[in-house]
Specification:
By secondary structure, the chain is α/β, with parallel strands linked by helices. The protein is built from 10 helices and 7 strands. It has a 7-stranded mixed β-sheet. Helix 6 runs antiparallel to helix 7, helix 8 crosses helix 9 and helix 8 runs parallel beside helix 10. The longest helix has 19 residues. The chain is elongated, with a radius of gyration of 25 Å.
């Protein structure tokens, strides 16, 4: 719209204001769509736009294929089921060796709970770098009529990272606290979420060494449930391989399967659930089998 100089002042001012309003409306971002926790079973928290992004298909492994972690599997399942049924349950920290099924177990347990109690739980993944927006996410979930497990994979903190404060207030001690409809699960390679050299360095350089690390180290204490994952032995590694081969219909003599799996683990320099899965993908490809 172009203002006509011959127009009366009031009309001219109105025309100018209209042009400004139209320009601002074009520049403004569209309103954020309300997040519907019933839109899917899995979501990723989009911190930039403050909304939940539905996941059509969650990338996961059937729980029965997770070998060598039977105690952890049973404990996490029971804790999650109590939560799904509206009973008290603990936030959980799954810590330990890389590739031993920590994140796979969280996703597998979620699938099992929803299979047993359809639609009872939403699984929402939040990235570690977005933890400072966790209170905003919880504000959305607080009034939702569906229970949710908020999950952060590979959680850890470095010297200059203060995002742990947002998580700490949510887990315990914040004035608003964690909604009863939300549980928080995290996986980490570190039991105390900090590298040992960071802990020792802060102790050695601080005026009060014990207080210097207390704030960060105490974060892990606020998880009521700790589940440790440790490197597997050869028998457990072979059990993983055999379970995968049977599940995907890969017909290969047991001795050959073990020999190939052993050689694969040697080339990788480790034995773990992740290494077993990588070997099975290679083996399935060679035998023309799918593993989805």
């Amino acid at each position: 719209m172009t203002a006509d100089p011959s127009m009366p002042n009031d009309a001219l001012n109105l025309a100018v204001l209209t042009r400004i309003a139209d320009a601002l409306e074009r520049l403004a971002p569209p309103p954020t769509a309300a997040s519907d926790v019933h839109a899917a079973d899995g979501f990723i928290w989009d911190a930039a736009h403050g909304r939940l992004e539905p996941i059509a298909k969650i990338n996961r492994i059937p729980i029965e294929l997770l070998q060598g972690i039977e105690l952890q599997r049973r404990t996490l399942f029971e804790n999650t089921e109590r939560f799904a049924l509206g009973l008290p349950a603990n936030n959980a920290l799954l810590w330990g060796a890389r590739g031993m099924g920590k994140s796979s177990l969280v996703k597998a347990v979620h699938a099992e709970i929803n299979a047993k109690h359809p639609g009872s739980l939403a699984l929402i993944e939040i990235h570690r770098e977005d933890l400072e927006t966790l209170p905003k996410l919880l504000h959305i979930l607080r009034d939702a009529d569906r229970r949710s497990v908020v999950y952060c994979d590979d959680l850890s903190f470095d010297h200059s990272d203060n995002s742990y404060k947002s998580l700490k207030a949510v887990l315990e001690g914040g004035i608003e606290g964690r909604p009863e409809s939300v549980l928080f699960y995290a996986t980490s390679n570190r039991r105390h979420l900090m590298a040992r050299d960071m802990i020792e360095n802060e102790r050695s350089t601080a005026i009060n060494p014990s207080e210097a690390v207390e704030e960060k180290v105490s974060l892990s204490d606020r998880f009521g449930l700790w589940l440790g994952f440790h490197s597997c032995d050869q028998d457990t590694f072979f059990a993983m391989i055999e379970g995968y081969a049977q599940a995907f219909g890969i017909d290969i003599p047991r001795e050959q399967l073990h020999a190939e799996a052993r050689e694969w683990s040697v080339t990788r320099g480790s034995r773990s659930g992740r290494v077993a899965w990588q070997y099975i993908q290679d083996l399935a490809g060679r035998h023309g089998k799918t593993v989805s």
